[in-house]
Amino acid sequence: MSLLELADVHAGYGETEVLSGVTMDVEEGEVVTLVGRNGVGKTTTLRSIVGVVEPTGGEIRFRGEEITGSSSETVARDGIGFVPEERRVFPGLTVTENLKMGRFGGADTAHRRSVEDIWELDAFENLRERKDSRGTDLSGGEQQMLAIARALVAGADLLLLDEPTEGLAPIIVERVADLVRELNEEGITVLLVEQNVAVASALADRVYILDKGSIVYEGTPEELDADEDVRDRHLGISM
Ligand SMILES: Nc1ncnc2c1ncn2[C@@H]1O[C@H](COP(=O)(O)OP(=O)(O)OP(=O)(O)O)[C@@H](O)[C@H]1O
Ligand SMILES: [Mg+2]
């Protein structure tokens, strides 16, 4: 049994179908990356898992239990953490207050961290130094670290990260990548949407490519690296 399974998931907005049958799975302990061109439905896939978008067809299972169409609150309580593309740091709250917000409605998993635990982690050194700064005063990298830290305070066995390195300076990209690796080594399973192919390849156990609403490729980063044809056709980039 996979930790997360999507079987022929359809979803969209209003009359527009964006996902036309997404099938993929994530095994416990893996880092799986989902890549694909702009607008193919990567974010919609994550939103379908966490109950922000209601699937119109197919099934989503977490630990073998069907969660298709469950509310975001239920999914969070089940142990799925979601860090959206737009990060959603509360601008008027301090770093500490933002972290405390993570305590509401999350999951009591073994991976749940207290706010104090967050300060102990080297990866969050910058946040520790900026405890009393407001969300608005944080850099993009600090906001990303805070959004991930808040998901840890909420407690997650499976972390869904939507383009966490987008718009960040190379050195900060490295830090975010190191953090994701560290969290995974501690046992958190990760489903990562990532446009930075170097990061996606460095972190992933397996890669899925989404194109126009369905999965068109699954393989290891090494296999994808060797398959120029697939990359040309579905990503339009060279690695
Ligand atoms: N809230 C929404 N309402 C209507 N259409 C939407 C909404 N969000 C996304 N879409 C459309 O759905 C399609 C898929 O969007 P989605 O955000 O899932 O793609 P993506 O692969 O994450 O893209 P990107 O790489 O730009 O983040 C796009 O055509 C987008 O315009
Ligand atoms: Mg997106």
What does this structure look like?
- It is a single chain.
- The protein has 239 residues and is α/β, with parallel strands linked by helices.
- It has one domain (4-234): Rossmann fold (3-Layer(aba) Sandwich), CATH 3.40.50.
- The chain has ten helices and ten strands.
- It has a six-stranded mixed beta sheet with strand order 6-7-8-3-9-10, with helices on both faces.
- α3 packs parallel to α6 (140-154).
- The longest helix is centred in the last third of the chain and has 16 residues, at 170-185.
- The chain is globular, with a radius of gyration of 17 Å.
- The model has no long low-confidence stretch (mean pLDDT 94).
- Magnesium ion binds at residues 42-43, 85, 162.
Layout of helices and strands, plus pairs?
Elements: E1 4-13, E2 16-26, E3 31-35, H1 42-49, E4 57-62, E5 65-66, H2 72-78, E6 80-83, H3 95-101, H4 115-120, H5 125-129, H6 140-154, E7 158-162, H7 170-185, E8 189-193, H8 197-203, E9 206-211, E10 214-219, H9 221-226, H10 228-234
Parallel strand pairs: 3-8, 3-9, 6-7, 7-8
Antiparallel strand pairs: 1-2, 1-4, 4-5, 9-10
Magnesium ion binds next to helix 1.
Largest sheet: 6 strands, mixed
CATH architecture: 3-Layer(aba) Sandwich
Indicate how many domains the architecture comprises: 1
Return the string of H and E elements. Answer: EEEHEEHEHHHHEHEHEEHH
Query: Unreliable segments (pLDDT under 50, ≥5 consecutive)?
Result: none
State the end-to-end CA separation: 32 Å
Helix content: 25-40%
**Rg (C-alpha, Å):** 17 Å
Tell how many strands the DSSP assignment holds. Answer: 10
CATH topology: Rossmann fold
